[in-house]
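Structure in, sequence out. Go:
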Protein backbone atom coordinates (compact mmCIF):
# COMPACT_ATOMS: atom_id res chain seq x y z
CA UNK A 1 0.00 0.00 0.00
CA UNK A 2 1.48 3.35 -1.06
CA UNK A 3 1.06 6.31 1.24
CA UNK A 4 -1.12 9.04 -0.23
CA UNK A 5 0.12 12.67 -0.27
CA UNK A 6 -0.66 14.81 2.76
CA UNK A 7 -1.81 18.43 2.92
CA UNK A 8 1.29 19.07 5.05
CA UNK A 9 4.38 16.89 5.14
CA UNK A 10 5.16 16.32 7.90
CA UNK A 11 1.66 16.57 9.30
CA UNK A 12 1.98 17.58 12.95
CA UNK A 13 -0.70 16.26 15.30
CA UNK A 14 -0.89 16.66 19.08
CA UNK A 15 -3.15 14.68 21.38
CA UNK A 16 -3.48 16.19 24.84
CA UNK A 17 -5.34 15.21 27.97
CA UNK A 18 -4.72 14.02 31.49
CA UNK A 19 -3.64 10.67 32.83
CA UNK A 20 -6.33 8.00 32.69
CA UNK A 21 -8.11 9.32 29.58
CA UNK A 22 -6.46 6.96 27.12
CA UNK A 23 -4.27 9.58 25.47
CA UNK A 24 -1.36 7.22 24.87
CA UNK A 25 -3.61 4.47 23.50
CA UNK A 26 -5.10 6.94 21.02
CA UNK A 27 -1.68 8.02 19.77
CA UNK A 28 -0.47 4.46 19.32
CA UNK A 29 -3.69 3.47 17.59
CA UNK A 30 -3.32 6.33 15.12
CA UNK A 31 0.30 5.41 14.58
CA UNK A 32 -0.63 1.82 13.77
CA UNK A 33 -3.40 2.91 11.38
CA UNK A 34 -0.93 5.03 9.43
CA UNK A 35 2.17 2.83 9.52
CA UNK A 36 0.31 -0.04 7.84
CA UNK A 37 -0.39 2.40 4.99
CA UNK A 38 3.33 3.08 4.55
CA UNK A 39 3.49 6.44 6.33
CA UNK A 40 6.44 7.32 8.50
CA UNK A 41 5.08 8.07 11.98
CA UNK A 42 7.18 9.35 14.86
CA UNK A 43 5.53 9.58 18.28
CA UNK A 44 6.86 11.53 21.23
CA UNK A 45 5.12 11.61 24.60
CA UNK A 46 5.44 13.91 27.59
CA UNK A 47 3.95 13.32 31.02
CA UNK A 48 3.34 16.22 33.39
CA UNK A 49 2.92 13.81 36.29
CA UNK A 50 3.25 10.07 36.52
CA UNK A 51 0.02 9.59 38.44
CA UNK A 52 -3.53 9.63 37.16
CA UNK A 53 -4.69 13.20 36.57
CA UNK A 54 -1.39 14.69 35.36
CA UNK A 55 -1.06 16.29 31.93
CA UNK A 56 -0.20 13.92 29.10
CA UNK A 57 0.74 15.08 25.59
CA UNK A 58 1.56 12.99 22.53
CA UNK A 59 3.23 14.41 19.43
CA UNK A 60 2.69 12.57 16.14
CA UNK A 61 4.69 13.56 13.07
CA UNK A 62 3.35 11.90 9.95
CA UNK A 63 5.16 11.90 6.62
CA UNK A 64 5.35 10.17 3.26
CA UNK A 65 9.06 10.99 2.96
CA UNK A 66 11.01 10.13 6.10
CA UNK A 67 10.99 9.89 9.87
CA UNK A 68 11.14 13.22 11.70
CA UNK A 69 12.24 14.12 15.20
CA UNK A 70 9.52 13.32 17.75
CA UNK A 71 9.13 16.88 19.03
CA UNK A 72 6.91 19.23 17.03
CA UNK A 73 8.51 22.69 16.80
CA UNK A 74 6.77 25.49 18.67
CA UNK A 75 3.98 27.09 16.63
CA UNK A 76 3.87 24.26 14.09
CA UNK A 77 0.92 22.03 15.04
CA UNK A 78 -1.63 21.39 12.28
CA UNK A 79 -4.20 19.57 14.41
CA UNK A 80 -4.75 19.31 18.17
CA UNK A 81 -7.02 16.76 19.82
CA UNK A 82 -7.85 17.78 23.40
CA UNK A 83 -9.51 15.05 25.44
CA UNK A 84 -9.63 17.52 28.36
CA UNK A 85 -10.68 21.06 27.33
CA UNK A 86 -8.36 23.19 29.47
CA UNK A 87 -5.38 21.22 28.16
CA UNK A 88 -6.17 22.64 24.72
CA UNK A 89 -5.14 26.09 25.94
CA UNK A 90 -1.86 24.79 27.31
CA UNK A 91 -0.98 23.20 23.96
CA UNK A 92 -2.22 25.99 21.70
CA UNK A 93 -0.25 28.57 23.67
CA UNK A 94 2.97 26.84 22.64
CA UNK A 95 2.24 24.91 19.45
CA UNK A 96 -0.68 26.84 17.95
CA UNK A 97 -0.69 29.16 14.97
CA UNK A 98 -3.34 31.01 12.92
CA UNK A 99 -4.08 27.91 10.82
CA UNK A 100 -4.24 25.26 13.55
CA UNK A 101 -7.36 23.12 13.84
CA UNK A 102 -8.74 21.60 17.02
CA UNK A 103 -11.06 18.81 18.15
CA UNK A 104 -11.97 19.07 21.82
CA UNK A 105 -13.95 17.10 24.35
CA UNK A 106 -16.27 19.21 26.49
CA UNK A 107 -15.95 17.29 29.78
CA UNK A 108 -13.49 18.91 32.21
CA UNK A 109 -11.36 17.15 34.77
CA UNK A 110 -10.82 19.58 37.63
CA UNK A 111 -7.31 19.88 39.04
CA UNK A 112 -6.70 19.89 42.78
CA UNK A 113 -6.51 23.69 42.84
CA UNK A 114 -10.09 23.91 41.57
CA UNK A 115 -11.36 21.15 43.86
CA UNK A 116 -9.88 22.92 46.90
CA UNK A 117 -11.26 26.30 45.86
CA UNK A 118 -7.89 27.91 45.11
CA UNK A 119 -8.74 28.37 41.44
CA UNK A 120 -11.84 28.65 39.28
CA UNK A 121 -12.37 26.46 36.22
CA UNK A 122 -13.72 28.44 33.23
CA UNK A 123 -17.26 27.86 32.04
CA UNK A 124 -17.96 25.92 28.85
CA UNK A 125 -18.92 29.18 27.16
CA UNK A 126 -15.62 30.81 28.16
CA UNK A 127 -13.69 27.78 26.95
CA UNK A 128 -15.50 27.77 23.60
CA UNK A 129 -14.89 31.49 23.08
CA UNK A 130 -11.22 31.19 23.92
CA UNK A 131 -10.69 28.21 21.62
CA UNK A 132 -12.49 30.00 18.79
CA UNK A 133 -9.94 32.79 19.13
CA UNK A 134 -6.95 30.43 19.23
CA UNK A 135 -7.81 28.15 16.29
CA UNK A 136 -8.71 28.55 12.65
CA UNK A 137 -11.46 25.99 13.11
CA UNK A 138 -12.55 23.79 15.96
CA UNK A 139 -15.08 21.08 16.65
CA UNK A 140 -16.37 20.13 20.07
CA UNK A 141 -17.60 16.71 21.12
CA UNK A 142 -19.64 15.49 24.06
CA UNK A 143 -17.41 12.45 23.98
CA UNK A 144 -17.23 11.61 27.68
CA UNK A 145 -20.99 11.91 28.12
CA UNK A 146 -21.59 9.52 25.23
CA UNK A 147 -18.88 7.16 26.45
CA UNK A 148 -20.57 6.98 29.85
CA UNK A 149 -23.84 6.10 28.14
CA UNK A 150 -21.96 3.28 26.41
CA UNK A 151 -20.63 2.09 29.75
CA UNK A 152 -16.97 3.11 29.68
CA UNK A 153 -15.76 6.74 29.95
CA UNK A 154 -12.37 5.90 28.42
CA UNK A 155 -14.09 5.23 25.07
CA UNK A 156 -14.00 9.00 24.64
CA UNK A 157 -10.48 8.70 23.23
CA UNK A 158 -11.73 6.37 20.48
CA UNK A 159 -14.52 8.82 19.70
CA UNK A 160 -11.93 11.57 19.25
CA UNK A 161 -10.06 9.35 16.78
CA UNK A 162 -13.33 8.81 14.92
CA UNK A 163 -13.89 12.56 14.82
CA UNK A 164 -10.40 13.13 13.44
CA UNK A 165 -11.10 10.63 10.68
CA UNK A 166 -14.12 12.69 9.63
CA UNK A 167 -12.47 16.11 9.37
CA UNK A 168 -8.81 15.61 8.47
CA UNK A 169 -7.32 14.40 5.21
CA UNK A 170 -5.44 11.63 7.01
CA UNK A 171 -6.53 8.20 5.69
CA UNK A 172 -8.25 6.96 8.85
CA UNK A 173 -11.39 5.30 7.54
CA UNK A 174 -13.49 2.63 9.27
CA UNK A 175 -11.83 -0.32 7.54
CA UNK A 176 -8.32 0.58 8.61
CA UNK A 177 -9.57 1.40 12.11
CA UNK A 178 -11.27 -1.98 12.42
CA UNK A 179 -8.08 -3.75 11.40
CA UNK A 180 -5.94 -1.78 13.84
CA UNK A 181 -8.28 -2.10 16.82
CA UNK A 182 -8.61 -5.84 16.24
CA UNK A 183 -4.82 -6.12 16.51
CA UNK A 184 -4.69 -4.07 19.72
CA UNK A 185 -7.75 -5.26 21.65
CA UNK A 186 -9.17 -8.61 22.75
CA UNK A 187 -11.96 -9.77 20.40
CA UNK A 188 -14.66 -9.10 23.01
CA UNK A 189 -13.76 -5.39 23.13
CA UNK A 190 -13.70 -4.78 19.39
CA UNK A 191 -17.46 -4.18 18.82
CA UNK A 192 -17.80 -1.44 21.44
CA UNK A 193 -14.71 0.31 20.07
CA UNK A 194 -16.14 0.16 16.55
CA UNK A 195 -19.32 1.73 17.90
CA UNK A 196 -17.37 4.50 19.62
CA UNK A 197 -15.36 5.25 16.47
CA UNK A 198 -18.53 5.40 14.37
CA UNK A 199 -20.17 7.76 16.88
CA UNK A 200 -17.20 10.12 16.68
CA UNK A 201 -17.31 10.21 12.88
CA UNK A 202 -21.02 10.99 12.90
CA UNK A 203 -21.04 13.45 15.77
CA UNK A 204 -18.62 15.85 14.15
CA UNK A 205 -20.21 16.11 10.71
Amino acid sequence: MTAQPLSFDPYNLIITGVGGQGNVLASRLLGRMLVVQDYYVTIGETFGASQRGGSVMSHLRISTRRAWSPQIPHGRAHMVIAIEPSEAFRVLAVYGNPEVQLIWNTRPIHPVSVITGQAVYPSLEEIAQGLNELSARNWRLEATAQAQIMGNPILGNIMMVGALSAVSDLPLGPEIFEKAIAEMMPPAKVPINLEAFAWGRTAIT
